[in-house]
């Protein structure tokens, strides 16, 4: 029996988030079903965190104990053969039996994808938030700079447990533009922090897009961080633009 760590990528469109629920289609449930098909007898896998309904992942981390008498690359192939097309194991590694994907994590990185277009684009909207009027990149970049550091993010999300702290440390954040079509670009918000509040990234994106559209001042983000008693930011960017990119370990 050994503990294995897997890196998962999934299209969250058809799932009620990562975490297994009593009823409903979840990523955790399909991964555990695939594991049982190759002889796993555990009760639950361990995960770095849960993603919400409709949120995607390129680097979700999970772990489980399994008696496997073959090379680890064979374990990856066996799992992918049992998983649906919208979930895939990107890597497998044997780890210490004390490893926990959540408690050993130092930080997590998310990307949020936005594009500006007046008319809907069904081919792009599965993985990005379409906004209009157009959001200007430069004011969003200036507003984003105030996020780096240790702040009380109570205005942008709720803690996972009632009464727990809303202070988080953001180590990196930026907006970047990537050409997608001759007439438009995709704007990508990148953020890395030790942990995140519930809906924190999506509320941050909501406010930053409002800054880019001229509906909110650049200084608004800093004011909300300075005053932890403010009302929670209204508006929530849709889940389809959000991707868990990486979980960082020592």
Number of domains: 2
Distance between the termini: 24 Å
- Overall structural class, as computed from helix and strand content, comes to alpha+beta
Rg measurement, Å? 19 Å
Q: Name the overall outline.
A: globular
Low-confidence stretches: none
The helicity comes to: 10-25%
Question: Quick one: how many beta strands?
Answer: 10
Supply the CATH class of the largest domain: Alpha Beta
Topology pattern, helix = H, strand = E: EHEEHEEEHEEEHHE
Account of the 3D structure:
The chain is of the alpha+beta class and 250 residues long. The chain folds into two domains: 2-95, Pseudouridine synthase I, catalytic domain, N-terminal subdomain (Alpha-Beta Plaits, 2-Layer Sandwich), CATH 3.30.70; 107-248, Alpha-Beta Plaits. The protein is built from five helices and ten strands; from the N terminus they run E-H-E-E-H-E-E-E-H-E-E-E-H-H-E. Strands 1, 2, 3, 4, 5, 6, 7, 8, 9 and 10 form a ten-stranded mixed β-sheet that branches. Helix 1 crosses helix 2 and helix 3 (137-144) crosses helix 4 (200-212). It starts with a strand and ends with a strand. The mean pLDDT is 95.
Question: Gist?
Answer:
With 250 residues, this protein is α+β, with helices and mostly antiparallel strands.
Pick out its properties.
Alpha-Beta Plaits; 32% strand; 250 residues; globular; alpha+beta
Please give the structural blueprint:
Blueprint: E1 2-10, H1 27-37, E2 46-47, E3 56-66, H2 72-82, E4 87-95, E5 107-116, E6 129-131, H3 137-144, E7 149-152, E8 167-181, E9 184-193, H4 200-212, H5 220-226, E10 242-248
Parallel strand pairs: 3-10, 5-6
Antiparallel strand pairs: 1-3, 1-4, 2-3, 5-9, 5-10, 7-8, 8-9
Helix pairs in contact: 1-2, 3-4
